[in-house]
Design brief:
This protein is of the alpha/beta class. It is built from 14 helices and 11 strands. Strand 6, helix 7 and strand 7 form a beta-alpha-beta unit. The structure holds calcium ion.
Length: 365
């Protein structure tokens, strides 16, 4: 009887502590639940730019509703608080609590970051989501960003991108010689090895750079976003597919102290909203790229793929560039081992599922 009484008392105590070890965490958590938070989110995109810019706005609206206004996030476009390419540093230092960008822009700070956006001949959107959320990818991403005081989340995918806009008809690898192209990440390194010169610049600068001849070619995203920037007015040829970005994954980043200051329910709201917006962006691109492609065709854009020798060379140079990155950076090697194993395994099944189905459907419709 005495023993049962003791057990009941213990159970009641545990329930009152919410499972905590009684270190005052409960009092802290109920105080935090009353508190309201006003956060800033800086982004790499022009304010309200279709897809890329609307995703962080949708995220902020969803978080405000889910938290009943306890967590309000104001979203800033590129240049409003910090320039497009300083989002990582701004969130790392706490200038802003959150950021929305793409990990491969931070290649200079952490070479392995490119693996969390896209690498040439890498994973598509569906596979990337599988690797991040059920294949160990997100844990590695958190490990990579921990020294920078950042907690990353998947922040939406554009799906397979286009290879980009060129002002020259690419008939062989020779035609890459001397070409200056806006192309970030590992794709840029490969393009340089193939004879061109890779340039990195924010999306908002591409149109003018193409128009004035500062660059001869540029990749941005795909029909929906490329039409919005009007690239068809300044380049003639539009190449597919996006060999360099087969499923570009964007990122939400949260400053680590800001993250730790939130009570558990607001952390769960950020996790849930990020996951929802991650899927929502892919849905939007899946629906809107088709409509934009039709418009680009109607405007007379020449839409074509690279000749076989160019595709083969890009594949060969990618292997070289990846091998060098693996040899030069221990974290790149660690993340790439996980990425590459996942790719090999998922390709086995996708050959007889997604890929086989597309071929079957194409042959019958
Ligand atoms: Ca791109």
């Amino acid at each position: 009887m005495q023993k049962i009484k003791a057990l009941i008392v213990m159970a009641l105590l545990l329930a009152a502590c919410g499972g905590n070890s009684g270190d005052g965490a409960d009092a802290k958590s109920s105080a935090a639940k009353q508190k309201s938070y006003q956060w800033k989110m800086v982004t790499t995109w022009p304010k309200n730019f279709p897809g890329l810019g609307s995703a962080p706005e949708n995220f902020a609206k969803l978080v405000a509703r889910m938290s009943n206004g306890r967590l309000k996030i104001k979203v800033y476009g590129a240049g409003e608080v910090v320039p497009a390419m300083e989002v990582f540093s701004a969130v790392s230092s706490g200038t802003a609590e959150m950021g929305h960008s793409a990990a491969y822009y931070w290649k200079g700070k952490a070479p392995a970051s490119v693996l969390f956006t896209a690498i040439p001949f890498g994973l598509n959107a569906q596979e990337m989501n599988g690797w991040l959320h059920y294949g160990g990818g997100l844990e590695l991403w958190r490990e990579l960003y921990a020294p920078f005081n950042l907690v990353p989340f998947a922040g939406g995918s554009t799906g397979v991108q286009m290879a980009g806009w060129f002002n020259r008809d690419i008939q062989s690898l020779e035609d890459f010689k001397g070409l200056k192209m806006r192309i970030p990440g590992i794709g840029g390194e490969v393009f340089s090895r193939a004879g061109g010169t890779a340039v990195s610049m924010p999306g908002g600068e591409i149109f003018t750079s193409l128009q004035t001849g500062v660059i001869d070619a540029a990749e941005w995203v795909a029909p929906y976003n490329d039409l919005a920037f009007g690239f068809h007015n300044v380049a003639k040829y539009y190449y597919f597919p996006g060999w360099h970005e087969p499923g570009a994954m964007l990122e939400f980043t949260v400053n680590k102290e800001a993250w730790q200051s939130l009570p558990d329910d607001l952390q769960a709201i950020i996790e849930g909203a990020a996951r929802a917006i991650n899927q929502d962006m892919l849905d939007e691109y899946t629906a809107r790229n088709n409509a934009a492609l039709i418009q680009l065709r109607e405007k007379g854009v020449d839409i074509k793929s690279f000749p076989a020798d160019v595709e083969e060379a890009l594949r060969k140079f990618t292997d070289e560039v990846i091998a060098e990155n693996v040899a030069n950076d221990a974290m790149f090697a660690k993340v790439y081992a996980s990425f590459d194993t996942f790719r090999k395994n998922v390709m086995e099944y996708h050959r007889i599922s997604e890929q086989a189905y597309f071929e079957l459907r194409d042959a019958n419709l």
